[in-house]
Structures are given as structure tokens and as C-alpha cells.
What does this fold into?
Amino acid sequence: MNKSVPVIAVDGPSGVGKGTLCQALAKHFKWHLLDSGAIYRALAFSALKQGIALDDASQLEQLALNLPLTFDTHSCGVKVLLNHVDVTKDIRTEQTGGAAAKVASINSVRIALLQRQRDFKQAPGLIADGRDMGSVVFSDAPVKIFLDASAHSRAERRMKQLQDKQNHVKFDEILREITARDERDRNRTVAPLKPARDALEINTTSKSIQDVFNQSIEYINKKLAL
Ligand code: DC
It folds into this structure.
């Protein structure tokens, strides 16, 4: 791992606006982007397809170590390819999200995926989006940001995203799923979702995307002395 390559670690629960912020930061700095949630989602999707139980630690660990997953970056975004097949849309369903939270609670799975995530640290820099970017995967990152927001506002945001993709969804269901998934992510024994000690915490409940971006940029510029 190249120590001199800067990493901006952005963590927080689902629907908090991490993805939007990270994409904007990657574009602004022209740095690489790691969407670590997509890795857990692809693993869960693959397990479901192969009929592997979501609590079968040893089979999931093997799958994680050998997952034929690639990210194809192009002008309009990133395609997620599993065995060369485009699964970008398939991994975004709430069902896959719930399954991802289950496989992500297994310690050996998380360890199996560590190096794959660290390999994204390439010059000129990396924006890392996840739950444990600042606390575990890039614990030496010079900039750590933790976003949080009320479950209600996160469910609203997630609902809008799903509607934009023309998925038919009910608000109560989204709120229930988001709350259940967070409970799992925050209370798991291994790498629970929590701010790193040295993270800047931003509550996005009543903030616009632009406000969150501006506050982050100001903080990053100060930390990296840009
Ligand atoms: O960010 P996301 O919704 O795509 O993540 C899907 C699930 O993956 C989430 O419920 C928890 C898990 N995850 C994780 O445990 N650690 C990460 N760094 C990223 C995601």
C-alpha cells in the first residue's frame, strides 16, 4: 500500500447521502472512488444466486476471497461486473442491501475483503465510501468524515432514489428496512458502524447536498493544507 497516497474516508448509515458526497468529492479532486458497500452487495448477490446461506461463514469467506468482481469506470458512472456480467442494478435492491448487511456482520468475510478494498488506494488519492473506512480499512486516513441523519430523512432520501429508478416502493417499508439494517450495522460485534475518534461528524438531516459538500471541502482543504 502506498503510504503517501491520501485517503478521504467517508462513513455513515444508509441513505445519509454518502454516495452523493463521495461522487462529488471524487469528481472535484479527480481521485479514485471506492464504493465498499457495492462489494458487500455483490458478495451477497452472488451468495443468493448460488444458494449459499447468508450465515455460512466458511463458504462466504471462500466466495469473498475469490469473488470475480470488477468495477468498470466510464464517463457516465461506474459499472459493477460480476464474472463480466453487469450487475449494477441488481445489487441496488433493498433485498440485496438486507442480505449485504447480513454477510457484512461475519468477521472472516470482512477480513477476506480487506485487501481488495485497500488496493483501491492509488495515486493521486482515494475517496472511500462505507461504514468502517475511517475506523478499520483506512484507519490512518488523514481525513475522516462521518455523516449521520434521522432514520426518517434517510428513508425519504432512499425512497426518492428508488423512485427515480422507477422501483415501486412504500415509505413505511423503506423506513422499516433502513431501521433494521442500521440496527444490524451499528450493533454488530465486528467493525460496527460508528464514527472514528478523529472523524468530523456532519448531521445531514436538514442540510442540502451543497451545504454538506461545502462543509466537507472546507474541512478537507484545511486538513490536507490544500
Ligand atoms: O452502503 P450500502 O448500503 O451499499 O451497503 C450495503 C451493506 O453493506 C450495509 O448494510 C452494510 C455493509 N457494509 C459494511 O458493512 N461495511 C462497509 N464498509 C460498507 C457496507
